[in-house]
TrEMBL record:
Lineage of producing organism: unclassified sequences, metagenomes, ecological metagenomes
Gene3D superfamilies given in the database record: Creatinase/prolidase N-terminal domain
Record SUPFAM superfamilies: Creatinase/prolidase N-terminal domain (SSF53092)
Residue ranges annotated for the Creatinase N-terminal domain, each copy included: 1-108
Protein name, as recorded: Creatinase N-terminal domain-containing protein
Length: 114
């Protein structure tokens, strides 16, 4: 699943969700950001593998290289440009909208959140 919504990235990682993207696969969690934010995201190790990009479209190359069977996307928060790049990189049937999934999970509170 590709997380692009700031609030959801913060919920999953515990750090501000601006200027980064989270990719969660069956076996691994990745935080994709550019070199300017390495220090800020370094607190996540070893929970997330940090992937450093120079330009946004390296994210698409990274996703393509993982050879995922499918990818869930937060379609309500995905730019048309990124969506088009995903469609170019992956067959369209592999791109699955997951609108509201993380928001639904965030509704469930543990003792610390109450």
């Amino acid at each position: 699943m590709l997380l692009t919504k700031e609030a959801d990235i913060h919920y999953v990682t515990g750090i501000p969700g601006d200027d980064c993207t989270v990719l969660i696969t069956e076996n691994k969690r990745y935080l994709v950001t550019d070199f300017r934010y390495i220090e800020a995201v370094s607190v996540l190790k070893p929970d997330f593998e940090i992937v450093v990009t120079k330009q946004g479209f390296e994210l698409i190359d990274f996703i393509r290289d993982l050879k995922l069977d499918n990818i869930g996307v937060q379609d309500e928060n995905l730019t048309l440009c990124v969506y088009r790049e995903l469609c170019t990189a992956l067959p369209q049937e592999k791109i699955i909208p997951v609108t509201g999934l993380i928001e639904t999970i965030r509704l469930i509170k543990d003792k610390e959140e109450i």
